[in-house]
């Protein structure tokens, strides 16, 4: 090796391009892809536009994702990781073991409200996919199904114990999820925020309403029939 080769400075990346470890670059591409797909849809977003927004060549994208479709589908895993969904599901299962109905329902309500607030881009991406007929929502539904079945099983268990009123557990699950989901939909799509409440208070109100509908009505305590004219211990009428 010549002295010149030994003393030559290391090659620098092109101006405007930042070197990232492979995992960081992958996360960066996914984050940018979520934003662009949510704005333009799957067909309206090109890998070239994603690369330009990331400040890399298009070839860099294909080093991490074989196709645009693969990149699109990996958004689900990225979103789940970012939101900490696995830890949250473990928390729900702990509530279920303790049969803490209020904590379980409140946790689900808060999760939906927080998701709408913290990750509106992912919500818009799903709307785009539905409108354009992309199968991504169906893939999402398949992943959600085990969670839905877990909730149905919990509700059925509480029904057997007489805590929840009798109904189709599937209907009950939809009732739980639809209240906060509709609020988020009305707010993000139609700009309707008629409630104007803090998220914490809103979650408390939704939780009370949901549990009020789920819980079985309490049976009135039975009263012992007493004689109209009670008798004394001696067998004589009182005040005789």
Describe what you observe in this structure.
The chain is an all-alpha fold and 240 residues long. It has 2 domains: 20-78, Homeodomain-like (Arc Repressor Mutant, subunit A, Orthogonal Bundle); 84-214, Orthogonal Bundle (Tetracycline Repressor, domain 2), CATH 1.10.357. The chain has 11 helices and no strands. The chain has helices at residues 3-7, 22-40, 47-54, 58-64, 68-83, 85-98, 101-118, 120-132, 136-160, 169-189, 199-214. α7 runs parallel beside α10. The protein starts with a helix and ends in a 26-residue tail after the last helix.
Secondary structure layout plus pairing:
Elements: H1 3-7, H2 22-40, H3 47-54, H4 58-64, H5 68-83, H6 85-98, H7 101-118, H8 120-132, H9 136-160, H10 169-189, H11 199-214
Q: How large, in whole angstroms, is the Cα Rg?
A: 29 Å
What is the number of helical segments per DSSP (H or I, 4+ residues)?
11
Largest sheet: none
- Tally the structural domains: 2
Outline type: elongated
Oligomer: single chain
Question: Mind telling me which CATH architecture of the largest domain this is?
Answer: Orthogonal Bundle
Approximately what portion of the residues adopt beta-strand conformation?
A: under 5%
Distance between the termini: 127 Å
Query: Which CATH top level class of the largest domain fits?
Result: Mainly Alpha
The number of distinct β-strands equals: 0
Structural class: mainly alpha
């Amino acid at each position: 090796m010549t002295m010149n080769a030994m003393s030559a400075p290391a090659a620098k990346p092109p101006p405007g391009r930042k070197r990232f470890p492979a995992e960081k670059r992958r996360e960066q591409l996914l984050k940018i892809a979520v934003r662009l797909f949510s704005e333009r849809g799957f067909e309206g977003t090109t890998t070239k536009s994603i690369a330009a927004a990331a400040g890399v060549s298009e070839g860099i994208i294909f080093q991490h994702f074989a196709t645009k479709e693969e990149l699109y589908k990996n958004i689900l895993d990225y979103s789940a990781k970012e939101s900490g969904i696995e830890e949250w599901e473990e928390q729900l299962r702990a509530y279920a073991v303790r049969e803490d109905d209020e904590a379980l329902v409140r946790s689900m309500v808060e999760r939906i409200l927080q998701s709408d607030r913290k990750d509106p881009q992912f919500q818009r991406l799903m709307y785009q996919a539905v409108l354009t007929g992309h199968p991504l929502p169906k893939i999402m539904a398949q992943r959600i199904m085990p969670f839905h079945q877990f909730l149905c099983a919990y509700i059925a268990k509480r029904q057997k114990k007489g805590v929840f009123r009798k109904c189709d557990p599937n209907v009950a699950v939809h009732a739980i999820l639809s209240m906060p989901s509709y609020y988020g939909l009305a707010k993000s799509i139609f700009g309707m925020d008629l409630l104007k409440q803090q998220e914490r208070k809103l979650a408390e109100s939704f939780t009370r309403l949901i549990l009020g509908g789920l819980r079985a009505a309490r049976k009135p305590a039975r009263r012992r029939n007493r004689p109209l004219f009670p008798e004394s211990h001696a067998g004589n009428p009182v005040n005789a």
